[in-house]
Amino acid sequence: MIIDCHGHYTTAPGAHDVWRTAQTAAFKAGGDVNAAYPSISDDEIRDTIEHNQLRLLRERGADMTVFSPRASTMAHHVGNEAVSLAWTRRCNDLIKRVVGLFPRTFVGVCQLPQSPGIPISHSVAELERCVTELGFIGCNLNPDPSGGHWTGPPLTDRAWYPFYERMTELDVPAMVHVSGSCNANFHATGAHYINADTTAFMQFLQGDLFRNFPALRFIIPHGGGAVPYHWGRYRGLADMLGRPPLREHVMRNVFFDTCVYHQPGIDLLFRVIDVDNILFGSEMVGAVRGIDPETGHHFDDTKRYIDALAIPEADKRRVFEGNARRVYPRLDAILKGQGR
Amino acid sequence: MIIDCHGHYTTAPGAHDVWRTAQTAAFKAGGDVNAAYPSISDDEIRDTIEHNQLRLLRERGADMTVFSPRASTMAHHVGNEAVSLAWTRRCNDLIKRVVGLFPRTFVGVCQLPQSPGIPISHSVAELERCVTELGFIGCNLNPDPSGGHWTGPPLTDRAWYPFYERMTELDVPAMVHVSGSCNANFHATGAHYINADTTAFMQFLQGDLFRNFPALRFIIPHGGGAVPYHWGRYRGLADMLGRPPLREHVMRNVFFDTCVYHQPGIDLLFRVIDVDNILFGSEMVGAVRGIDPETGHHFDDTKRYIDALAIPEADKRRVFEGNARRVYPRLDAILKGQGR
Fold it and tell me: ipTM beyond 0.95?
């Protein structure tokens, strides 16, 4: 089967976004940031999915998407901790409804109630709720809740450890994923996302996080940011900084998805990164929705690029399925429960 | 001939750095930040060059380096405008001495006296001095003088225009090059450099700068950051944002160097980027100084990767020489004056 490890609910019903707009307005006005959530019918949710993600999934020949709230609107920098928590719970509950309606096609990954300057330990409860009560299989961890100002500590700082401890106990990985940018220098999907991917990898390279957490697992999305293209630089920097080879030091714990929107980029990814470290992902319907005039196909139809690779079929199976079942053990358990 | 467009004086005499250390100490103590510069003999300078850049240039078979002050120690975020100006003038004067000693091997590019929050118009005088008095052919423009906090406006903001006007009049390009990072999230050469390259490109994509300055030229170093690896993403984003195709919108004015430290990365660069937009560069002696155990050669011996490309010899000549003479017209004039 073919599992897309990277999908966001970018097509959520309008009422969901209306609630958020009202919430942020209420925050500014000193009002209630945890107001009642609107009634959204199952049919409305089905409609947004069937005409978008599900349609494209079928057209492109994939079977399942690891599904999380829209990344760009997590917006941890908006409001305060209470705003973030109330919004995050609504977003995760909505994902749970999608999974409930399409249990063989979607599996949940949660947003976290991060907020600039607030200890990450405050996000543990929502992780637990999503994993143990809602049946989610992982989380999206924002390395920069300030939205492009990077005011917090690096991911290797001990400040993050309480969260990593719970991740390890629950045996769930995190996708390192920033949200929107409130810094005019950084376009969200064109700069901030890719920079964050590159930054996270370099933090892992500099640090010793995986010595302390040998079972901790991160997916760095968007093909690992700039890292595979500069793989020689990173191997050389590891050497200059006296770190062990990347294969031992970082790549037992870090995985890249295939959200790279052209064939040459995917070719490079597979040429330099071990196939066991690559998970199929498309991030559709997402940052880049158009059709590539050079190919006549959607930029984000990343399955085509992998299909075109001259690699053994067994390797493709690992990228499409096996690696995801290994990196997300709770996904594997769910699939086995479904007889898959 | 073979022109390396990207070299910094990373091996400057110790007295130069001692002066800087004293200067920053003086700033903190409220003392003189423009103290007398130590006497450094020609032999000392010759020595630092002959055993490093010149030796490697000869060993690797290149002829000339476009040479500028060490990027990581520009440190525009340290001190204030007066500190930056005094340091910048010393750095540029030192480059001029190298060029004077090796006029057929080095040509100067200047650092600018940028400082966070200070208008870029204050850097015009030093650009003029370096170009018209010292014979330099371009400048390094720091898109983030705050050193990793990104507190200034994007490169497409009108705040930068006074500088671009003078660049255009002088007919000199700028390499977009950040300096050291004072943000713990960003390792300088492993994250901040690459992120800045990616960020600058996306700013150009979002903006309309080159409609207003059709003759303005930028070199984005380190192989264009993450951009070639994500070329499909950028083509798709241009489309989504309603911008013209990148070839017209950005790539008449933007060039990438070849500071990508492994063969697969260089292969990708040449596969997706027009050969007219690629300038040979190595940034040696720089960020990555070791030997790649996979090849037995220095990571930053980028000429080897280009030599290995299966592209027409005429294309290699453009990357090694022709494009540089076109992007830096003052280099072309100097070379012609030398009968080259």
Answer: yes
